[in-house]
Amino acid sequence: PITGSTMTVVTATATPTSTQTQTATATATVTLTFTPIVKTDICPPSPNPAEGQLSFCVSVPPQTSMIRCEIFTLAFRKVGEKSFPPPFPGTLNLDLVDSYGQPLANGLYYLKVTVTGSSPATETFKVLVIR
Question: 89, 112, 113, 121: which has the fewest Cβ within 10 Å?
């Protein structure tokens, strides 16, 4: 994921090389233009199945205030939570531990990722934990 993208614009201009013959030489000019991200994008976590840690990528606009991850059992009981304040790297790592810091037991869990700010988003993923 990229927190911004760069577009390269190449402009060709003709420069006369001789007044006697009507020939011209093209000269390329490179202009870098920053294109900000305006929409939040959350990638599925990997590896899945996981052993002890998950990674997932996020692309967020600059005005994003918080990324929150919650882990739920299949019965929707919250067993873990972690928040990430700005600045946000492109990839976030999440340890698969409960609220007490203990490793999650083997099984299927829901991972809910919530982004707050100018482009809010919420994604829910299934994660299989195998130790």
Answer: 89
Report the distance separating Cα 66 and Cα 68, nearest Å.
6
Q: 48: how many CB neighbours lie within 10 A of its CB?
A: 15
Bridge partners, residue 111, by sequence: 71, 125
Q: What is the pLDDT of residues 11-64, one digit of tens each?
A: 555 555 555 656 666 777 777 766 665 678 888 998 989 888 899 888 888 777
Question: Residue 130 CB: number of other CB atoms within 10 A?
Answer: 10
For 4, 6, 69, 125, the CA distances from 52, given in Å and listed in that order, are 30, 35, 15, 16
φ and ψ at 30, to 5 degrees? Answer: -100, 130
> 82 Cβ partners below 8 Å, 6+ apart?
68, 69, 94, 95
> Whole-structure pTM over 0.70, yes or no?
no
